[in-house]
Amino acid sequence: MAFGFFGRKKERKDRHSGDPERDSKSRLTSADLLPDTDLPQLNRSRANMLRQELEYRFALQDAHINIDGHSAMVQRADGGAAHVSLRTLAMNAAGLENFDQLPELVENFVHGTLADATLKDLSTADLYKALRLRLLPTPSENDELAEYGLTIESKIRDDSILRTFTSDMSIALVLDTEHAIRIQPLKELERFDDLGALERAADRNTWQELYDASVDVTFVDAESDSEGSSFWTFESNSYYLGSAPLFLGDLLAKWAPDLDQSDGVIFAVPDRDLLIARPISTGENLMNGITAMVRTAMRFGLGNPTSISPRLHMLHDNQVITFTDYRIVSPEMEAEWEENSFDAPPAGAIGIEVRPDPYLMERLQQGGFGDFGDFGKPRDLGM
Questions:
Q1: Which residue stretches does the UniProt record annotate as biased composition, category Basic and acidic residues (predicted)?
Q2: Fewer beta carbons below 10 Å: N end or C end of the chain?
């Protein structure tokens, strides 16, 4: 099983949205027959038909769907909400013998989603079985996510956040029901039990979900590029792979027993379907590994609907810290470097900041790695 992260081309943000391109007589063009950016199981024309049918069918039920990529937020008339994936629906639509069956397919999806989204109809036992923990991005002031306060992810954070996990990720409580991954305000869930008890149930369920998940493990051998550039990748179609850092040590021991965790682990969860990790080594070997992982995390952790974080984290002594950051280099920022400096990235480049804590700095110095005065300055990694 392979999920294709390292064979796919990163999608840029110049997506086509709205109605497909048509000629002056509103006929389909060749562009309409290309795979849709967000729902590649369908071509652009049929994906737009699916989105329009969803909006229409939910409106008939006095509900509203806000589609974002291959997921959506459903708002019910009574104020409740559900976060749903559209992947399976798109796959089922692609498999229809006759696309005239689309309205019936969508209607069944709508009814199932709204039925799942009624909290009052869940028994306490069913609610406990449905609880999961999910890691969500926590945007900083300069992140794109922060600029759009009404996005799906911001609604999930606001309604279901338990606490922060790292400086850039937060832990949310979600309900995994038959048709939807859904959110409820924490105050509504507290009607069933206190949050501590609910979180413990969600913790057990999420652990079991990840333990039973089918995970594709790959050792990316890049030693021919530079010593230490290799790392491990973990890919899965499980919705909760992005929550693996909550149980990272135990899961890595199961998924990659050859990955040495004795001195700690560097990891990233750039996407909900992707985890990357490597042992903490020393010196230039460690710095080469950090560089390779930053490139991968930035490639898959920016601009995708399921992105979690493009930053690198370290697990050591049961503590998790974030030690890289990024920013877009503006023309004004070029003044921070000398005009002829080798390190000066051009305007528009992504500047990477590496901020090792004392332990990581010590590991780098053990191998005699060069000048540490440059840490904290943005560098262009040629991305």
A1: 14-26
A2: N
Helix (H) or strand (E) holding 85: strand 81-85
Tally DSSP H helices, then E strands, for the chain.
11, 16
Write the CB contacts of 250 (distance below 8 Å, at least 6 apart in sequence). none
Report the distance separating Cα 167 and Cα 297, nearest Å.
16
Please answer whether residues 271 and 301 qualify as being in contact, where contact means their C-beta atoms are separated by less than 8 angstroms. yes
Quickly count: other Cβ atoms within 10 Å of residue 312's Cβ: 25
> What is the rounded distance in angstroms from the CA atom of residue 111 to the CA atom of residue 157?
26
Q: Which residue has the tokens 């890595």?
A: 252
Residues 112, 179: contact at Cβ < 8 Å?
Answer: yes
Q: Which amino acid is at 112?
A: G
* pTM given for the model: 0.70
Quickly count: other Cβ atoms within 10 Å of residue 330's Cβ.
Answer: 10
pLDDT tens-place values along the chain, 383 residues long:
334 545 433 333 333 333 444 444 556 677 778 888 888 889 999 999 999 999 999 999 999 999 988 888 888 777 667 778 788 888 889 988 888 999 999 998 898 788 765 666 678 888 899 999 999 888 654 444 333 334 444 555 667 789 899 999 999 888 887 766 776 678 888 888 899 999 999 999 999 999 999 999 999 998 887 898 999 999 998 889 999 999 999 999 999 999 999 999 999 999 888 999 999 999 999 999 999 999 999 988 886 667 899 999 999 999 999 999 987 665 555 444 444 444 555 555 677 888 999 999 999 988 666 554 444 444 445 55
Dihedrals phi, psi of 328, to nearest 5 degrees: -85, 125
Rounded CA-CA distance 198/217 in Å is 31
Nearest-angstrom CA–CA distance, 263 and 234: 20
Handedness of CA 329, 332, 334, 335 (dihedral sign): negative
Domain boundaries, given as residue ranges, for the chain? 31-117, 124-212, 216-380
DSSP state of 196: H
Q: How far apart are CA 248 and CA 254, in angstroms?
A: 10
Q: What is the DSSP secondary structure assignment for residue 227, as one 8-state letter? A: T
- What DSSP line would sit under 244-256, residue for residue? GGGGHHHHHHHH-
